[in-house]
Design a protein that fits this description.
- With 385 residues, this protein is of the alpha/beta class.
- 38% of the residues lie in helices and 14% in strands.
- The strands form 3 sheets. An 8-stranded mixed sheet has the order 1-9-8-5-4-2-3-12, with helices on both faces. A 3-stranded antiparallel sheet has the order 7-6-10, with no helix packed on it.
- A hairpin with a 2-residue loop joins strand 6 and strand 7.
- The radius of gyration is 21 Å and the shape is globular.
Length: 385
């Protein structure tokens, strides 16, 4: 728990109590490098829980996204369509292969990519649509996959925030051709750093294994399918060590309980903030009926006339750590250099100035949440008066 009991941190990494035991078992097994028994357990768990054709642990979600760009065989001149309101890795993975991210605006309700704007962004150079599931709330995947099928495009799901969440009963990350998860310490299920690639197109499995293993067919060798492994293609070392997988396995074993507990905290925030939304002091998150979210984060949107920096500074002074989120990629130096936009992005520009993420972690108490709500509401009222 945080050292200063009067301070409410934005995040506090959760341990189930089994992580050190699993790490000790991995050491006892004499296997600390990647793809040991715990890695295989994690692979099987992910495949069972998501229904993907093949799950592969990676050392980060960034690595998993880079693998999707390799699997698409992207090159200079190719384009991929994505939202600007996302983490830099979503774009970086494709820029590294020479492709150009094309940004479209997000929806006002979910802050996910506006599926109604995708088709007009498609050009003869477009190769893929990147669906980023913001806050663990699914994008409108039926429309996105239909647009992709009509135009011969691939769909990549950046489900970094989407573990244990679904769209129309299907796990986020398992709906497009490829998906990527994050197990960073700020996520729901954690391993410090870490991620996973979900391969949903069976014909991509073989190359995914090769790219992940430094461009070799080492995975086939260990399955006894070849008598030696050799360099087959470009690739890199994308797999995590076995100790990371051991830590993650302890989290996977408690995944349902962790998700349920976070959802309870999320619902408490939602109920506590209802009067303030009714009074037009803020806007709460919106979750469509077809989406089952995972309580990855709780955020609010400030009224346009309230200065977010003043609100955040005053909350910090009162002992509550709340933070903003993304600086839109289209307005960043690298975004201006490597990417382009399709049309105006007014919603992206607006929400990026108004959004505040609130403390949400395993173990946050009702009393702490009440204090967060009262502090934020008080600061907003002071700024509106």
């Amino acid at each position: 728990m945080a050292k200063n009991k009067n301070h409410i941190p934005f995040n506090w990494p959760y341990m189930t109590g089994k992580e050190l035991y699993c790490i000790a078992e991995a050491h006892f097994n004499g296997r600390l490098a990647g793809d040991g028994p715990f890695t295989e357990r994690c692979h099987k768990w992910l495949e069972a829980r998501t229904g993907c054709s093949r799950a592969l642990l990676t050392h980060s979600c960034t690595a998993a996204l880079e693998m999707t760009a390799l699997l698409l065989e992207l090159k200079a001149g190719d384009e991929v369509i994505m939202p600007s309101y996302t983490f830099v890795s979503t774009a970086n993975a494709f820029v590294l292969r020479g492709a150009t991210p094309v940004f479209v605006d997000v929806r006002e309700d979910t802050l996910n990519i506006d599926e109604g704007l995708i088709e007009e962004a498609v050009s003869p150079r477009t190769r893929a649509i990147i669906a980023v599931h913001y806050a663990g709330v699914g994008c409108e995947m039926d429309t996105i996959t239909q647009i992709a099928a009509t135009n011969g495009l691939k769909v990549i799901e950046d489900a970094a925030q989407g573990v244990m969440a679904t769209y129309k009963g299907r796990a986020l990350g398992s709906i497009g051709h490829l998906g990527a998860y994050s197990f960073h310490e700020t996520k729901n299920l954690i391993s410090g750093e870490g991620g996973a690639l979900l391969v949903n197109s069976h014909d991509l499995i073989g190359m995914a294994e090769i790219y992940r293993e430094k461009g070799t067919d080492r995975s086939r060798f260990f399955r006894g399918e070849v008598d030696k492994y050799t360099w087959q293609a470009v690739g890199s070392s994308y797999l995590p060590g076995e100790l990371v997988a051991a830590f993650l396995w302890a989290q996977f074993e408690e995944a349902d309980r962790i998700t349920a507990t976070r959802l309870e905290a999320w619902e408490r925030y939602h109920e506590l903030f209802e009067p303030f939304e009714s009074g037009e002091y803020l806007r709460r998150p919106i979750v469509p009926a077809e989406c089952r979210h995972n309580a990855h984060m709780y955020y609010i949107l400030l009224p346009p006339r309230v200065d977010r920096q003043i609100v955040l500074s005053e909350m910090r002074r009162r002992g509550v750590s709340a933070i903003f989120h993304y600086v839109p990629l289209h307005s960043s130096p690298a975004g201006l250099r490597y990417c382009r936009t399709s049309g105006e992005l007014p919603v992206t520009d607006s929400v990026s100035r108004r959004l505040i993420r609130l403390p949400l972690w395993m173990g946050i108490s009702y009393e702490q949440q009440v204090r967060v709500v009262e502090t934020l509401a008080g600061v907003i009222k002071d700024n509106l008066s």
